[in-house]
Write a structure and sequence with these properties.
InterPro entries: GrpE, GrpE_CC, GrpE_head
Largest sheet: 3 strands, antiparallel
Main location: cytoplasm
Coiled coil: 28-55
Helix content: 55-70%
CATH topology of the domain at 114-173: Nucleotide Exchange Factor Grpe, Chain A, domain 2
CATH architecture of the domain at 114-173: Roll
CATH class of the domain at 114-173: Mainly Beta
Structural class: alpha+beta
Biased composition (Acidic residues): 1-14
Strand content: 15-25%
Radius of gyration: 41 Å
Shape: elongated
Distance between the termini: 139 Å
Strand order of the largest sheet: 1-4-5
Family: Belongs to the GrpE family.
Length: 173
Amino acid sequence: MEADETERQEEDMNTESAASDAGAGDELRVAQARCEELNDKYLRLAADFENYKKRTARETEQIIRFANERLALEFLEILDNLERALKAEDADLKEGLSQIHKLFLSILERNGITPIKCTNARFNPNEHEAIAHIPSDYEEGYIIDEVCRGYCMHDKVIRCAKVAVSKGKQNNE
């Protein structure tokens, strides 16, 4: 009788073990399904992100390519006026060129491009390029002549002014 009871206990333990193995198998299948689902979501997200990067790169390229389109259209307006001035009589030529000059300066200003002021200014290597150092009655380091005008675009120097700078008075004794 004891042997039968021991045998029954072993069968019960095997049944419980098989049941717990079945439960673990179910949990494993659920975990694997969840893992596959998350992996699929990850792959889709990675693909979406790659597409986003490509799209923004294309859009940025387009923006850069056509960034100056508005400015170019305004320059074409100046070109039209220059062509009209070239067809005009000599008496009207100077006045026409003066009007074109004013138009050109206003277009530059509307686009944030302004000339660098050099008159009675002290030499500033961030804004000026000294092309001559000349003795004069002006104090040393002051600009005495502007050879080529410099320009800023939104507070950034895009072209330095080419200037002649005073050496101060020179004694020839």
